Amino acid sequence: RWIQTPVMPGVCSVHLIKVSVCDLCVFILHVTLYPSAYRIKRGTYSLINPTFQCSMKDVNLLYEILLAGMQIQGEEQTMLIPDEELASLRHVEKLEVICDDILPKRLSEIRRLAAELAQRHQALRWADFERTVLTLVYATQTVARVNNQQQKEAWTDAVIKLLSAIQMDLKLS
């Protein structure tokens, strides 16, 4: 079946592509895991659907940033990297966009994500895996900040479900 679709949401050019029902389901599944990744943020097209890790150097950089004590703040605050030298790297801008604009921050959004991940029967795309791990980091940091016991239990449950989804994905890969 031929359908008319924009190249990316928010971009005006349109292409005709041939998709099967299965292809369309897979595309919709990818888009719905992190829908904010496909919205234009910060006024630049280059940051639509950003991915931080594109090489082993990027993987090592992310590891170094996490070890330095990176904090993924709540909805209204930005990502914080205590090491000024790491924070000033140009490549960190993509990580900041991912953490500030793409990752779900509300408990309800994270529960929705965990439920969708639990129903998957195929490995995640690399960008979705990266975002899921970063969402796990955010949720874990939130558990440490929350004082209310009921909230702490709810966030802990979300962390466990995200961790299970990541473990399942690693088995599928």
Descriptive keywords:
6% strand; FAM180; mainly alpha; single chain; 173 residues; Family with sequence similarity 180 member A
Give the secondary structure arrangement, pairings included.
Blueprint: E1 2-6, E2 14-18, H1 21-33, H2 56-67, H3 84-87, H4 92-102, H5 107-118, H6 126-145, H7 149-172
Antiparallel strand pairs: 1-2
Helix pairs in contact: 5-7, 6-7
Concise summary:
This protein is mainly alpha-helical and about 170 residues long. It is built from 7 helices and 2 strands; from the N terminus they run E-E-H-H-H-H-H-H-H.
Write a structural description:
It is a single chain. The chain is mainly α and 173 residues long. It has one domain (33-172). The protein contains seven helices and two strands. It has helices spanning 21-33, 56-67, 84-87, 92-102, 107-118, 126-145, 149-172; strands at residues 2-6, 14-18. α6 packs antiparallel against α7 (149-172). It is globular and about 35 Å long. Residues 1-31 have low confidence and may be disordered. InterPro entries: FAM180 (IPR029170). Pfam families: FAM180. This is Family with sequence similarity 180 member A.
